[in-house]
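Lab notebook: predicted structure, single chain.

Context: the supervisor wants predicted structures on file for every construct in the current expression panel, including those that have not yet been purified. This is the next one on the list. No modifications to the sequence; it matches the entry in the shared construct table.
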Amino acid sequence: MRWFRPLAITALCVAVAACSTSPTGRSQLLLLSDNELNNMGSQAFNQYQQELPSADQASQRYAQCIADAIVAELPQDQQQLDWQIRVFEAEEPNAFALPGGYMGLHTGMLDIATNQDQVASVVAHEIGHVLAKHSNERASTQSATQLGLSVISSASGLQGAGGEQLMGVLGMGAQYGIMLPFSRRHESEADTIGLDLMARAGFDPRESIALWQNMQQASGGGAPPVWMSTHPSQGQRIEGLQANMSGAMAIFEQARNSGRTPNCPRP
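Prediction complete. Output recorded below exactly as produced.
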């Protein structure tokens, strides 16, 4: 009988996951409400704006122009999010997305992304994270993993040093076997979603590959092993983008033929 509870919990989690799918059709475990996540995103975004200095207005207009062009191509219900983007003065080439549609770009990323199409690939990727509800899935998976480890600890009856050692091993297995692969999967999925989004808005999807080639040159190696990384390697990302490029190019050509030719002046 002691295994009934974890089995019931597992069955419940599977049932919940089956009720939700990502934009690419992948099953998801989503335990938190959109309102909860959006409020958390708003609070985190406000904190970012308090802690990091804003870039100049020309950079803000540049990023906003690109984001507006992409958001304009989203379905009407997805346009209702409070889409905001800010550029922050920071040398690290980074970008982030938060639930609710809040996005940030570092000026270091603008140094590597040399034209509007490359910046669009970053922005569309971040929008892809939001549309796929990756923050919700990540938080839900962490909650389910912690609950599962707690159940295993209680069921094993181990205490003292032996029990702590077992839980340490289980915790490491959960981190490297569950949490990080999920993150790599999210990154690859956001790449796929973002590639189509930027093409639909009239940005050249081929520039997404050029961006990651720039990132490779800028990084100079030193990346962690892929199995311990929260992101796919640059080479893996380029391969994934290349695999989806023919479909994105068809969308891009259709967008250009329909008159979608964004022109966002670089500062």
